[in-house]
């Protein structure tokens, strides 16, 4: 027999009164299907429900048993359909085999593409290495050509200057007029030598020394052991000796000019230093004494 609870009033309730009270309606099933269902919260909303706790437990227990039975019936029904699925499917083996063969062919094609990519990668790497080697050789060839061209230019300039002094004894006609005028203005008559013989200007000597040192540095960057550089050593030695000869001549002339040649003498000593031939200058001066 169900018992009901009334919020107000006190004292006992007779059995006859309890039998005459209406039984509360069943809990709606939809209340348990909400996504935000929470048992304590839901029970708190049943405070106005006129039903004992024991009756509520019994109701919920019966509902749980009913749900379990429905779930079992649903599983049994679907299980029978699942068991019959194998007999319903016929002819699928051929389609599965076609798919398997297609996948194997695709896999083989992917492996072929990978192999070609690896081969192409190796070819590209080999070509890049070859390009680096060729670039280095081209750069080396350009340096060698530059060494030869600069040496040839120095030889031509020194040869013309030497012939000019031997032939007419008046300046260096092979140099441009503008350079001669600049040198005369800057040195203030430094080229005048006792006996009426003129010498090479310090500016031209300085330029020759700088060009000679530039060729030596370029040869050093290539490598003094390179066959071409080794073959150019006689030419380099001849150019250096010719410049030293001109410097020695100019130094003797400047020393013989006395006070007028001091400025020129200092400049010539600096040129000797740039050439790395300071000892030769000292020997020349000692020989004059």
Summarize this structure as a short list of keywords or feature phrases.
single chain; mainly alpha; 289 residues
Describe the structure.
11% of the residues are buried. The protein is mostly helical. Helices cover 73% and strands 0% of the residues. α4 packs antiparallel against α6. The chain contains 9 helices and no strands.
Distance between the termini: 150 Å
Q: In angstroms, what is the radius of gyration?
A: 57 Å
**Poorly predicted ranges:** 1-14, 160-182, 184-198
Main sheet, how many strands, which sense, barrel?
none
- Please state the average pLDDT score: 76
Please write the string of helix (H) and strand (E) elements.
HHHHHHHHH
- Structural class given helices, strands, pairing? mainly alpha
The multimeric state of the shown protein is single chain
Total number of β-strand segments? 0
The portion of residues forming beta strands comes to under 5%
Shape: elongated
What helical percentage do the residues reach? Answer: over 70%
* Count of helical stretches: 9
Task: Give the topology, please.
Elements (H helix, E strand, L loop, with lengths): L14 H6 L18 H6 L8 H36 L3 H76 L9 H11 L14 H21 L4 H30 L5 H14 L2 H11 L1
Helix pairs in contact: 4-6, 4-7, 6-7, 6-8, 7-8, 7-9
Summarize the structure.
The chain has 289 residues and is mainly alpha-helical. The protein has helices at 15-20, 39-44, 53-88, 92-167, 177-187, 202-222, 227-256, 262-275, 278-288.
């Amino acid at each position: 027999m169900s018992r009901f609870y009334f919020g107000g009033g006190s004292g006992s309730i007779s059995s006859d009164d309890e039998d005459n009270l209406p039984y509360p309606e069943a809990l709606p099933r939809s209340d348990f299907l909400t996504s935000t269902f929470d048992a304590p919260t839901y029970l708190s909303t049943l405070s106005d429900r006129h039903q004992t706790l024991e009756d509520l437990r019994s109701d919920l227990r019966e509902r749980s048993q009913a749900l379990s039975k429905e779930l079992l019936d649903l599983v049994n029904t679907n299980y029978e359909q699942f068991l019959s699925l194998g007999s319903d499917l016929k002819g699928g083996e051929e389609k599965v085999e076609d798919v398997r063969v297609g996948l194997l062919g695709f896999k083989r094609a992917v492996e072929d593409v990978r192999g070609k990519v690896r081969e192409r990668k190796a070819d590209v790497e080999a070509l890049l290495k070859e390009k680096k080697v060729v670039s280095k050789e081209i750069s080396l060839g350009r340096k060698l050509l530059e060494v030869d061209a600069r040496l040839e230019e120095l030889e031509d300039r020194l040869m013309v200057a030497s012939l000019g002094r031997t032939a007419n004894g008046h300046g260096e006609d092979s140099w441009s007029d503008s350079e001669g005028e600049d040198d005369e203005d800057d040195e203030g008559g430094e080229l005048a030598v006792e006996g009426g013989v003129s010498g090479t200007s310090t500016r031209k000597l300085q330029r020759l020394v700088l060009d000679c040192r530039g060729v030596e540095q370029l040869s050093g960057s290539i490598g003094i052991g390179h066959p071409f550089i080794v073959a150019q050593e006689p030419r380099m030695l001849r150019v250096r000796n010719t410049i030293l000869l001109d410097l020695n001549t100019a130094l003797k002339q400047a020393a013989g000019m006395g006070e007028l040649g001091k400025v020129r003498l200092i400049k010539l000593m600096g040129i000797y230093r740039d050439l790395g031939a300071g000892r030769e200058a000292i020997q020349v001066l000692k020989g004059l004494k």
